[in-house]
Amino acid sequence: MTLLKIILILVGLAFIIFGYLIYFKEKYNLINGFEGDFKSGRKAESYAKKVGLIELIIGIIFVLIGIAVIIIK
Prior knowledge:
3 helices; elongated
């Protein structure tokens, strides 16, 4: 069970890092195939911002759940 808690927190941290890099640092190359779609006009920059924000929020939720489970047990 402890291993699952650690994995949950590590996955959350990975999501936070990728979300931060995409949303704040505008490293859109981390989104698979985005640069090609952006150049051809199929996707806009707002799409990349949304993806980064969603990853950031999911990462925060995972980390908070992991910490809460550690504190509760």
